[in-house]
Amino acid sequence: MFNVWSFFTKRSRFSFILIATILFLGIGSILDIPKESAPDINVPIAIVSTVLPGASPLDVESLVTNVLEEPLKNSLDNVKNITSSSSGGVSAITIEFQASADIPKSMRSVRDEVEIAKRDLPEDATDPQVIEIDFGSDPVVTATLSGSIPSEILFTIAQEVSDKLETVSGVSSVVLSGVPNKEVQVVIDTQLLNQYGLTITDVTRAIAGANTSLPVGNIEMNGVEFPVRLSGDIENSYDVADIPIISVGGAPVYIRDVARVFDGRSELTSLSRTSLDNEPSKTSVSFEVFKSSSAKITRVSVAVQDELRQMQEAGGILENLEVHNMFDAGEELRGDLSTLTKSGLYTVLLVSLVLVIAVGWREALIAAISIPLSFLVAFIALNYSGNTLNFITLFALILSIGIIVDSTIVIVEGINRKLQDLSRGDDESKKDIQKIKSDAALEVVKEFHIPLTTGTMTTIAVFAPLLMVSGITGEFIKSIPYTIIFVLASSLLVALGFVPMFATKLLRRGSTTVGAFSRKREELVFKFEEGYKKYLTKVLNSKESENVLFLTLIVVFIFTLALPSLGAVRVVFFEDSNSDYVVLDTSLPIGSTLSQTDLEIRKAEEVLYTIPEATSFVTTVGRGSAFTDPFGGGASGSARSANIFVNLDLSRDRETTEILDDIRIGLLEIKTSEIRVDQLSDGPPSLAPITVTLFGDDLTDLELAASLVENSLREIPGTADVSSSVKDTTTEFVFSVNREEAVAMGADIRVIAANLRVALYGENVTEIKQLGDDIDIVAKVALDSTQSGAFNTNNTTLESLTRVNITTQQGIFPLSNFVNVSVEPSRASVVHKEGERIATVSSRIGEGGNALVINKELQAKMASNLIPEGVRISYGGESEDVDQSFKDMFTALIIGLISMFAILVLQFNSFRFATYVLSIVPLSLIGVFAGLMITGTPLSFPSIMGFIALSGIVVNNSIILIDTINKERRKHGTTKTMQEIVVGASAARLRPVLLTALTTVVGMVPLLFVAALWVPLAYALMFGLSFATIITLLLVPSIYVRWPGKRI
Question: What pTM was computed for the model?
Fold first, then answer.
């Protein structure tokens, strides 16, 4: 291997060509690599959605969900879990596969099973839609549109804007809120129907049959064939009104004779308002722009903003309207990349400054050159391996700076020391200086290429198992091991190949002794080394001191491990970030209208007016938030749902968590609804911090158990936004068909259901084909003859509804002849997990809360509560995520340590020395936990990542230290005592060991100011490495002297 590395120094001109190639390909890769705000999360998740119009949740459960769920549960492979929700008229089944599953194959399997099972669905059910979930489908741009113009004009302009934006390259869809759809409304008068002896079905069939355009064949004339088409297209509302239904006494009865026909818009299903600078919110139209999976965020963002600017210019459709950007993911991404890039530059500067002070500017320059060169090689690998550049990738690059410079420091410091030794010897002629530097460089490479390669391999070994972390979290962090593995491999190439070549060009023989500063520095280094030698000798000479050291480390280590259990160190999954965005959302009880939901969310707006940091917000009523949807971008639509997206002042003094506490206090004054609030998270999508799942067959028992859990959870300090999935109950009218009467009169139950559906909900009978969006023709029934409009047609009495006529084989009869009406309790939804009925109770973490502590206290409370028989409880949420992720991380760490041990045994050919090296890893936890406790930082997923990174660094220092001791032992084993050998070798490695630790710790400082997400990792690495460096310089020499072994 030495011959390979020496080639780069001996053939320096070729090395420069290779460096130029790396520069060209690396810069090209930086420009070409896809840039995202967050890593791609490719966990196979499918949702099977089916609509059964007008059906209750229990009917949807029995007729749709159970039919589809059973074969999916029994036939699919690699399934992690299956959940389902049966709500009014809609069934949604979610299948999450194992992360290792093949996504295209998994989706095909789901579609195949659904295709077979759908044969058993009711005829009125729509074909099930299989949707693949994309976790990266948050809106790219969210904006609002408002102005002092009539609402109809505003709606029209908004639709035009939406249509234009959908043509922008990379845009997959635009979701409008506050804009009703255009439609032709046919409002049927039941009294007029009865006069003519007609039914609702007669009307809908007539409209659908009249809108026909079909090719019917060809006709030949004069030897030429011409196609023949039957054209009966409906072009406008007048055509609808003039459609004949039947003929009575030779005179046709038209649609206009039994119904009123309107050109209008559908009832509003969503509302939108915008507030700027704490001013009262104004009615607006909001739109969310989503990108296609292959498109780049920055390009889509710029293209959308350019399109909006063009529309706002003179003569544009938005010339006199107000357009406000509430969120721009492209701008956020550019800001994040800029911040992280600056942080990386600061890290390089700080590391270089440390090296300038410690070893000299020439040596620091070589190290500074090696960092971007290593990065360029890594970028080439990242780009061609299909990775993206996101904030996780950039973070990993910054994290790696302190690691990759270690090898360079060892080489540069070694060459520097060789040249110093030579400068003290006989003077050489000037013409031999280059050869002297080249020989010194090659000698250092020969000395250190094996331990440096081993050190790099052990660090790779500890990061590589992170690729095995499962689920969404594993997908979220996989960029870290990929990036660091590529960077470490690149740094080894640079350190052993290019750095020695740079040293021969830049370093001067004996340069460190030139100048007052350099002389002073070397004097201080010499004194420090001598002081270390004296102290280490004193420790090694005293068995009692060694025993105290060993015993103290063991006791402190055991005590440190108990800190989380004692509550001195909090345990969380991901610490709350200091986000610039806050989301409030609510879901009112089932049956709530859009206006009622609007009234409740306006109360939340009043709270926001009192928050000075809330610079602007957009309220959407009738839809949930795309940002808080656990599946990313699937914002649910319901009249009882609403959300507020809040922009916080970027120059604010307070942390986001403090602002959230103030908002929650204000929301407590709202007694008529529960409104949740949270900030956007930088971490991976996850469950609520506290989630309790109850399993049982009886819905009443589940509701009782959920109520007990909810009340117990509210009593525990540190909880916030406690909610239950089964509290939303109401009553419903159940129309039970008298089957004997129906059969006797020849009534078709499906016809009865269809007539009821049109009477209550309306029916999209057909559509008018137009360029652009088609216009639906909607049939409704005015059950109350006093109503004149097309809205609220179902505002009636049961008596009016049962008078609706039904066509049977025996004639036309009122609905009351076939049905019995009863009032029964109704639920908003029935939820399944693995085919079992469940209820969930969830909570967020309030001030001073700890998910693990809250879960323990809740379990203690529930142990004394009488849970209904047949109901069992599962405690999950963030604690479940913590348990699983920590388990995966622990497994990855164990695999990494085993791999490291194998590599160390391979190098040293000794179990003893491999054990000495690895002994530092667990003891470094003392520094990690102490640092977390001192700074008040929780033990979290990022801090565990810091410990893993720490393991690789401290092992590298120990490897080189023991390798140096072994070499000195072989060289002077017969002339020096073991203590002299160990002390001398340890002193020789003192400066590089301290420099690697100092550069890594200093390199972590900028991370403390980049994102709150990574602060735990930075602290874990900084405190852990500082402590590990001290014990490396004391413990490794001590155990080596005490148990050196007979041979090496």
Answer: 0.69
